[in-house]
Amino acid sequence: MLKAKDVDFFISDWLRNRNTVEFLGIWEIVHNPDFYSGEFTIIKSQAGLNSYKLSVKEWVEKTNAIGLRSEGGGQHQI
Predict the structure, then answer these.
(1) Which long-range contacts (CB under 8 A, 24 or more apart) does 45-51 make?
(2) Which end of the chain lies in a sparser environment, N or C, as judged by fewer CB atoms within 10 Å?
(3) In the chain, where do the E strands start and end?
(4) What span, in angstroms and rounded, lies between the C-alpha atoms of 35 and 31?
(5) What's the confidence (pLDDT) of residue 8?
(6) Any idea what the Cα angle at residue 48 is, between residues 59 and 74, rounded to 5°?
(7) pLDDT for position 70
(8) Kind of pairing between the strands at 75-77 and 69-71
(9) The pTM is what?
């Protein structure tokens, strides 16, 4: 769990990394039968671009991910 004043910046920056997105997607495919792999493919194609940003909340909503969780108050669990 991360707690910091600017944690959203650090997490979204981490989620922009293509290797991070690929790892998270593979983990979800293995452990989550309800993972939306089609949406993951779209995210993976955009990951690494300077203009692309992704929050934990967006990742969970778009892919039905279970490996990351976003809670109110800037708390993120990984």
Answers:
(1) 47/15, 47/16, 47/17, 47/18, 47/20, 47/21, 47/22, 48/16, 48/17, 48/18, 49/16
(2) N
(3) 69-71, 75-77
(4) 9
(5) 60
(6) 40
(7) 76
(8) antiparallel
(9) 0.78
Q: What DSSP designation does 67 have?
A: S
CA atoms of 67 and 76, how far apart (whole Å): 11
Mean pLDDT of the chain: 84
Cα end-to-end span (Å), the chain: 6
Question: What contacts 24+ positions apart, CB below 8 Å, involve 55-62?
Answer: 55/8, 55/11, 55/12, 55/15, 56/11, 56/15, 59/15, 59/24, 62/36
Sign, CA dihedral 33-39-44-48, equals negative
CA–centroid distance for 1 within its chain: 14
